[in-house]
Structures are given as C-alpha cells and as structure tokens.
Amino acid sequence: MKSAPTSRVSVSGIPDDTLDELDALAEAEDKSRSEKIVELIEAEVGERLPDDNDEYRPSDPSLNTVYTVAVDHAKQHQLRFDLHKSKMATETGIPGTALRGYLVSLQREGYVKHQMGDALGSGSDADFWRIKPLCANPRAWRYSEVYDPEYVAELESMTPEETLGRLENATPARGQADD
To answer: Are 29 and 67 in the same domain?
Structure first.
C-alpha cells in the first residue's frame, strides 16, 4: 500500500502555556509533540478526505462499524432501523439499545439523517434513517447536518476541468461530492 506524501509544517504564535498543555497531553499518551499534533489534525480533517477507495467514512472505529453495517442494510440509502436493529446489533457487537446513540453521533457528523414524520406516507411510525452513500462527502450530502451550501455552489459553478483539478489537488476541507 502506497503511503500518502507528508509535509513539514511550522507554526508560530502559540502561547507557551498552550504548548505546555500539548506536551503534557502527548507525554500522558507516551507520544511526541509531533505525533500528538498529527493525531489532532487527523481527527479534525481526516473524515473530510476520501480514503483510497474514494469513500468517506468516520475515523472513529465504532462509528465506522455502525455506519458500514447501516450502509449494508439500507435499501436505496434508507434504513428502516426498527426492522434491522437486531441484525445490526449482532453484526456490530453493540447492544440494540445503544445503536441509536451511535446513529445520533453519525448524524452529527453528517453520515446519516433521521427521517422525521411519516416516511412511508401511510400513517406509519416506522423508524427510518437516510444513510449517506459511501462516495458522498458529508459536507456535500444534502441531508447532512454539516451540509455546506456555499461549498456545493462553488463546486457546481466550476467547469469539469476545474472540478477535476480541485479533486486532484484536494485540500483537507474539500473532496469529491456525490449524492
């Protein structure tokens, strides 16, 4: 597997007491300052970049597991949670009573969206969740709580060549957008 290129970054203007706190955090985890900074950066922007398969997945292993299983059980990107909760609990190893909390966390990060009201249009009180397609950037998925309409408008105003150039030179906050 080819590793991503890395860069050296220099930052100034950080107060000494903030650096002391960072060093204490790093030392408590038996890490160097650089390792801790890389970890913090990856936690902040890592999910905003597609992986090697051009998929956007949560960086937290538990959330990624729940999201993957939700994708597997969804029909046309909709999950009827009340029918699939037991199977999902078995596949994830997470109690069914706790799965909703994981879905709420995924919703805050833009990976799923709870469907409010009568999703079936028949007076049903079924528990539906919209599941983001793997290839969709959470910032560009229209059901996401982190949806950024300015970002989407910027992408839509670009020519195909500009869009391709943007994807080839993606910044940490930008990536491929699909719905």
So the answer is: no
Q: Can you tell me whether residue 78 is helix, strand or coil?
A: strand
pLDDT tens sequence across 21-36: 989 988 998 989 888 8
143 is in which domain, residue-wise? 61-168
Closest Cα partner for 80 from 124, 47, 111? 124
Residue with tokens 């300015």: 150
As beta bridge partners, residue 75 has: 78
| pLDDT, averaged across the chain | 80
Pick from 89, 48, 45: nearest CA to 65 = 89
Q: What is the three-class DSSP state of 80?
A: strand
What is the DSSP code string of 101-131?
Answer: HHHHHHHHTTSEEE--S-TTSSS----EEEE
Instruction: Judge if 43 and 127 occupy the same domain.
Output: no
Q: What are the pLDDT digits (tens) for 103-133?
A: 999 999 889 999 876 655 666 677 899 999 9
